Amino acid sequence: MILVLEDWCKGCEICVKRCPLNALELSDKLNKRGVYPPKLKAENECNSCKLCELICPDFAVTVTLDEEKKSKEPKSRLIIGGIVNEV
Amino acid sequence: MTAMIDAERLRKKYLRDGMLPTIFCNGCGHGAAFDYAFRAFEELGLDMDKVALASGIGCSSRIPGYINADGLHTAHGRALAFATGIKAANPDLTIVVFTGDGDCTGIGGNHFIHAARRNIDMTVILLNNFIYGMTGGQLAPTAPIGSISTTSPYGNIEQAFNICELAKALGAAYVARWPIFHPYQPIKSIKEGIQNKGFSLIELLSPCPTAYGRRNKLGEIDSLWKWYEDNTILIEDYEKAMDYGTEEEKEAVRGKFQVGVFQNVQKPGFFEEYDKLVQRIIAKEDERKGGAE
Ligand SMILES: Cc1ncc(C[n+]2csc(CCOP(=O)(O)OP(=O)(O)O)c2C)c(N)n1
Ligand code: SF4
Ligand code: SF4
Ligand code: SF4
Q1: Does the first or last residue of chain A, that is N or C, have fewer Cβ atoms within 10 Å of its Cβ?
Q2: Which residue in B40, B126, B128, B132 sits closest to B80, CA to CA?
Q3: Whole-prediction pTM value?
Q4: Ligand 1 pocket test target in B61, B132, B212 with most atoms within 8 Å of CB
Q5: Cα distance from A43 to chain B (closest Cα, Å)?
Q6: CATH number for the domain including B203?
């Protein structure tokens, strides 16, 4: 997930233009500065690489690992005596 | 690992309360520099009570004001002189300097030369934007030939400083240059610079859209950042092209800014040598006194 501190964003669009997976777009809500902070696209391939968080010159972006995606991660399977244990 | 550091926690820990957003213009690269520094501090597990910051004057020199640590915001060009003083008074402190190309190599050029030559244990993060940003865009000694500035309206005719080459020649222990848009390399270099016991210089090429990009017709923020991408080359690739490339390949890389780690040597810093000197003199004195009794 991408969290944006909207009022810290100056609207440079560096995060939007440099996301390697083109996962960000400008939101349609103006912030206090009169710019449109970024948000994740409804359909996106964001893999939480954190580039946007790292290069935003204004500390406005936080990338958190997606809970939903996390739970979808395959669990490793331990097979003991023919019984499948998910760990 | 860097990628897993939580930005929220980083902001809470290292940013001074209530100081953000920064005064920097939209699209200025300077802000990323201290984000990278925080990540390097975090990875090193530095105790911020044992860190002292210093800076001179300029947009870049405003950075310590945003960081939750003790720091000196000093006179223009004098950051390294003050930093040397802090280190002399308390050698246990880790000294990190934030400075600009104008601050450090223009008015502060002589301090820079001597701090590097003496190999004083400090880490200098120099934000090079080729211009005096804060005062509206006068020509800096780092500006490439042809640069338009308020004091070179017809194009710069002066040869630019190659700060890293200079530092290397002066025997600085750690010397690196990176463009600001690649996060991991600067973070690693800041870390290595702090770990190195001598003078460490990390030059970060930081776009200034307001005073340099606009005037030099390098376009909007994105194209200015891209200009840096197109005009930088890894030192290893540069050397390869120069050694084995065709004439065209050589020509293509010749004008580019080389980036990478240029020097990383371990040698005693000034204060280590100073300590040894003091010990030697004390031992001699003791011997003399012992002999007289
Ligand atoms: C003794 C003195 N001379 C001149 C100035 C005016 N001055 C303030 S900032 C600056 C240039 C800063 O340029 P740089 O270090 O490149 O920082 P930037 O603003 O580009 O980040 C100058 C000339 C000053 N403050 N003090
Ligand atoms: S990089 Fe930061 S300041 Fe620039 S648009 Fe993105 S969130 Fe806003
Ligand atoms: S974390 Fe990476 S992929 Fe996701 S939005 Fe940011 S830059 Fe794009
Ligand atoms: S004038 Fe240039 S260096 Fe100063 S804050 Fe603006 S963009 Fe950054």
Answers
A1: C
A2: B126
A3: 0.92
A4: B132
A5: 24
A6: 3.40.50.970
